[in-house]
Specification:
Layout lengths: L4 E4 L16 E3 L1 E3 L2 E3 L8 H6 L2 E3 L2 E6 L4 H10 L2 E12 L7 E20 L7 E7 L2 E9 L6 E10 L4 E2 L1
Antiparallel strand pairs: 1-2, 1-7, 3-6, 4-5, 6-9, 7-8, 8-9, 8-10, 10-11, 11-12
Amino acid sequence: MAETIFVEIPEVTGDADDDKHKGWIVVHSMSFSVERMIDMNDLSSNQRSHANTRFNQIELVSSLGTASNNLMSAVVSGKSYREIKLHVCRPSKHSGNVLEAYSNWTLKDAIIDRYELQVDNGGTPEEAWAIAYSKIEHEYKSIDKKNGNLEKVNTFKWNLSTGKAE
């Protein structure tokens, strides 16, 4: 199966060779969660509106590659990136050989917060790493059934520092 998740980090070159994502990092899996910290023993309407929301880091798994040492260095140095982009892609309806991004993530004021390497005997080394951020945007696109093109459906933007949508 072709790679379908790509990450672009400024000054970090990855192994992707997809036409639209050359030099990006190829990612095997991505995990994101946000949760409302509600006490199940007290489901009052007051708690629902004032409970804290917790955004978790975006966690990624990729193969050891050209970006690996830069990812480790970013953790050690605490380097901050103005913007990191993630694209989740699928084959184009017009040409199965072309990938189109339909789930686009932008992480602002981001840092690589964790890096782990796992190697099994005879297996491909895999790395798990996490990105922390102060602002997050997610744009979702859906296929227009009339023309087969991807069209923006909606966007989520949140500033963790202010606790407000942007």
